[in-house]
Amino acid sequence: MTTSAIHGSRIDPAALLRLPQVLSLVPVSKSTWWNGVRSGRFPKPVKLSERTTCWRASEIFALIEKAASEEVGR
């Protein structure tokens, strides 16, 4: 199993991240994040319960890698 080092911490790619954790990795506001989820720009959430929403860490890492590679390609 591999882990990713982002912001000095190791996060298991199989982990589920809550919104505050996601926003600490992806520098956008909460409303921008939700607009991106609705438009398909950002990954769809996983609903654990009526009031608990998470995202797969692996999908967040892929989003960050994609954004970084697009930035390098400019």
Would you give an account of this structure?
The protein is α+β, with helices and mostly antiparallel strands. The protein has one domain (13-72): Recoverin, domain 1, CATH 1.10.238. It is built from three helices and five strands. The termini are far apart.
Biggest sheet statistics: 3 strands, antiparallel
Strand order in the sheet with the most strands = 3-5-4
What's the overall average pLDDT, rounded?
A: 90
CATH topology: Recoverin, domain 1
Residue share in β-strands: 15-25%
Q: Note the total helix count.
A: 3
Radius of gyration: 12 Å
Give unreliable regions as ranges: none
- Give the strand tally: 5
Helix content: 40-55%
Straight-line distance between termini: 33 Å
In total, the number of domains comes to 1
Structural class: alpha+beta
Shape: globular
H/E element order: EEEHHEEH
CATH class: Mainly Alpha
How is the quaternary structure best described?
Answer: single chain
Task: List strands and helices in order, with pairings.
Elements (H helix, E strand, L loop, with lengths): L3 E3 L2 E3 L4 E2 L1 H7 L4 H10 L6 E4 L2 E5 H16 L2
